[in-house]
């Protein structure tokens, strides 16, 4: 038994899709969520910046006494070396790669993510490490995160952007598409309109949440309470964040604090 919270962080509201899955699968845990709303999006940031951001956020989570930290940001996962950090870390990118490799039947997988994640080839490497016979087709979608952060996931503008980025997949015969940024499940309805209902959309948060549960059970770290609490922290504007949190989590939240993440 371990009553300490689980830390979850992302560049903004996207990691709420991971938090929602974690709460579904581990409802008794307390959570600390950090959204880096001051510095979102991460997709065009340099490797040095992202490593510095990750260090600051993990230090914050350690100050909050988190027993484990979920990196709910594919760009961060694609950039840092987890072994450099003194914390129990769960990686949404590896979970997504494993899910896609297990699901595909025709061994043709599409991946959409931020520019930095795509350029890192992290999904390609992780998927091919599981099955080198799988073909991976990737597309960066840099406009998606700003659209989602502005609450425009289902707008005409989002549809036009999705069509530009995703229409090429219909010539690749993929049967699986990895939503390689935690913001993207918020835009899944728009994405389905472009790629079609027959393509399986992989939300990496599902496998990640079960992996976290297995780990906590193995090491007797589960919180035995029936329903946990969530504390939210952001680095900048919290208005859009509050709206997204209440829509995605299905309840009202009052505990949302703004912090100076740079001091960590």
From TrEMBL:
The active site is at residues 73, 181. One of its GO terms (biological process) is peptidoglycan biosynthetic process. PROSITE patterns: ASP_GLU_RACEMASE_2 (PS00924). Coiled coil: none annotated. Its EC number is 5.1.1.3. It is an enzyme of class 5 (isomerase). Pathway: Cell wall biogenesis; peptidoglycan biosynthesis. It catalyses: L-glutamate = D-glutamate. Keywords: Cell shape, Cell wall biogenesis/degradation, Isomerase, Peptidoglycan synthesis. Substrate binds at residues 10-11, 42-43, 74-75, 182-183. SUPFAM superfamilies: Aspartate/glutamate racemase (SSF53681). It holds the Pfam family Asp_Glu_race. One of its GO terms (molecular function) is glutamate racemase activity. Belongs to the aspartate/glutamate racemases family. NCBIfam families: glut_race. Provides the (R)-glutamate required for cell wall biosynthesis. This is Glutamate racemase. It comes from Aceticella autotrophica.
């Amino acid at each position: 038994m371990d009553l300490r919270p689980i830390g979850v962080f992302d560049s903004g509201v996207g990691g709420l899709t991971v938090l929602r899955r974690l709460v579904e699968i581990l409802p008794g845990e307390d959570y600390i969520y950090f959204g880096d709303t001051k510095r979102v999006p991460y997709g065009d940031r340099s490797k040095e910046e992202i490593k510095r951001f990750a260090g600051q956020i993990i230090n914050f989570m350690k100050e909050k006494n988190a027993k484990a930290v979920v990196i709910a940001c594919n760009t961060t996962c694609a950039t840092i070396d987890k072994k450099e950090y003194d914390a129990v870390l769960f990686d949404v990118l590896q979970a997504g790669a494993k899910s896609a490799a297990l699901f595909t039947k025709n061994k043709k997988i599409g991946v959409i993510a931020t520019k930095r994640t795509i350029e890192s080839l992290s999904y390609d490497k992780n998927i091919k490490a599981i099955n080198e016979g799988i073909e991976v087709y990737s597309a960066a979608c840099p406009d998606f995160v700003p659209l989602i952060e502005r609450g425009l996931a289902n707008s005409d503008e989002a549809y036009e952007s999705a069509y530009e980025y995703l229409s090429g997949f219909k010539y690749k015969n993929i049967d699986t598409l990895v939503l390689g940024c935690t913001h993207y499940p918020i835009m899944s309805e728009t994405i389905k309109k472009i790629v079609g209902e027959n393509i399986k959309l992989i939300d990496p948060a599902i496998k990640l949440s079960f992996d976290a549960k297995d780990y906590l059970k193995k090491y007797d770290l589960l919180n035995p309470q029936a329903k946990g609490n969530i504390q939210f922290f952001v680095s900048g504007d919290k208005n859009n964040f509050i709206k997204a949190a209440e829509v995605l989590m299905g309840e009202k939240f009052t505990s949302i604090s703004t912090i100076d993440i740079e001091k960590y």
